[in-house]
Amino acid sequence: MSPDSGNSGAHQHGERADACATEAPGRRYWSVEEHLADVLSRVSPLPAIELQLLDARGCRLAEDVTATGDLPPFDNSSMDGYAVRTADTVGATEQYPSVLSVVGEIAAGAAELPRLGPGQAVRIMTGAPVPPGAEAVAPVEWTDGGTGSGRAAQAMTAARPDEEVRVRQEVRDGAHIRRRGSDVTAGSTVLTAGTVLGPTQLGLLAAIGRGSVTVRPRPRVVVLSTGSELVPPGEPVGPGQISDSNSFTLTAAAQQAGAIAYRVGGVPDDPERLRAVLDDQLGRADLIVTSGGVSVGAYDVVKEALQGIEGGEDHAGVEFRTLRMQPGKPQGFGRIGGVPLLALPGNPVSAYISFELFVRPVIRTMLGAPDVHRPVVRATTTAALRSPAGRRQFLRGRYLAEQGAVEPVGGSDSHLVGALAKADCLIVVPESTESVAAGEPVDVVLLAD
Ligand SMILES: Nc1nc2c(c(=O)[nH]1)N[C@H]1C(S)=C(S)[C@@H](COP(=O)(O)OP(=O)(O)OC[C@H]3O[C@@H](n4cnc5c(N)ncnc54)[C@H](O)[C@@H]3O)O[C@H]1N2
Ligand code: MOO
Fold it and tell me: Which cofactors are reported in the record for this sequence (predicted)?
C-alpha cells in the first residue's frame, strides 16, 4: 500500500471513518519537521537580564563569572582549639604535654588579632582568622581544654594572666588551617556562561559576594484554554459541560520545561472575548499557548479570532495549518503584538502531544538550552500497532528500559486522558507505516524528566 494512499489507512482501522486520514486536494499538509522547523526559525533565546540570586534559580548563566577575591578570604581555623607555634609542641605527649600560656581568644568574625609569641597559644573557633605568629591549630580534643573559661565573642577577649593550656601531642605545620585561596583564587573563572544555576552554584555566587547575576530569564508563558463547555475543576459540571483539564496540563508542562507559566482560565467561544483576553495578556507574555478552537467546527473561536489579524512588524498574524500527524492534526502558529503564539488542538491528548513536540522546544530555545528536544530511543513494541496511512502517529506507551521494550498504553483516540496519565513516552509510527508487529523496533520519545 502506498504511504500516500490517504483514505486507505482509515479503511485499515475498520471501526470508524477517520477525519484525520482524509486529505483535501490542493491543500497544503505540513510534516512534523516542517512545522517544527518553521516555528523554531522564528524564536530565539530571550535577551539576558540581571536577576537577584534566588530569582535566577534554574536559569542559565549568560556571563562567565570571575571571582574578585580569594576563597577563603583569609587563613582560618577548621577546628575549635588553640592556635600554636609548632616548635612549642615538639615532643608533646599525654604524659609530658606542652604547657602554653593563653594570650587571647578569637571567634569567627574577629577583626583584631593578637600576635603569638614563643610559648603562647590563642583560643580559636572554627572559621576564625588565624592570628599572626601561629603556624597550626591544636583541636581542643588534643588539649586539656585550658584553664580559662572565656566564651566565644565577636572580638578577642583578654585572657586571664595565669591562663594556660596543655597540648598533649605534636601539631604539624599548617594543621587545621584552611588557607586563603585554597578553594577559589581571585581572578579565576568560577562558573561559565551556559551553566544552569542550582542551589550550589547560587551558593558559590553568594560566597564570592555576587548579589545578582546575568542570566537568560525563564520565558513567561500564558496558557489559555477555549471552549464554552469548560468549567474550572471543582465547580459543578452542568449538562454538556466538562472540567477544563488542558489549561492545567499545559501550564504544568510549561513549568516543567522551565517557563514561568500563567494559567488563564477557560475563555468561552466568543472571538471578541478571546481577543480582549489576549490583548490583556500580551503585556506579560513571551509566548502564548491556546488550546481548542482550531478545527473546522462552527465555533472554532481561536481560528475565528486570530486568522487574518495583524501580528506586528515581524510576522503578520497567525496561520492555521494541517499537519500529517495524529493526534495533533490542526495547529496554529504566528505572532500577535510581536509575541509568538501556538494554537493547539483542543482534544486533551492532542494538546499535550502538540505541546511536547512544538511548544517545549520553543520554551527550551528561549531559555538558551542545548537540549531543545526530548530524547528519542529505539525499543521493541510488546504489542502490535496500527496507524493511519500518511500520518505520523504518536501512541502513548510505557518504556521498559531494562528490556529495551515499550508497551502501548490505551488506544490511539485523542480524548484518552486516563491512559495518558499512565504513559511516560510516545511511540512513533512513521507516515509510511500502517502496522507494526509485536517485537518490531520503533522510535520512542521519552517524556519523563
Ligand atoms: N469535521 C472535522 N472535525 C474535526 C476534525 C476535522 O478534521 N474535521 N479534526 C478533529 C481533530 S483531529 C481535532 S484534534 C479536533 C480539534 O478541535 P479544536 O481544536 O477545535 O478543539 P475543540 O473543538 O475546542 O475541542 C475538541 C475536544 O476537546 C475538548 N476540550 C477542548 N478544550 C478542552 C479543555 N481545556 N479541557 C478538556 N477538554 C477540552 C472538547 O470538549 C472537545 O471534546 O477537532 C476534530 N474535529
Ligand atoms: O489530530 Mo486530532 O489532534 O487527532 O485529535
Answer: Mg(2+)
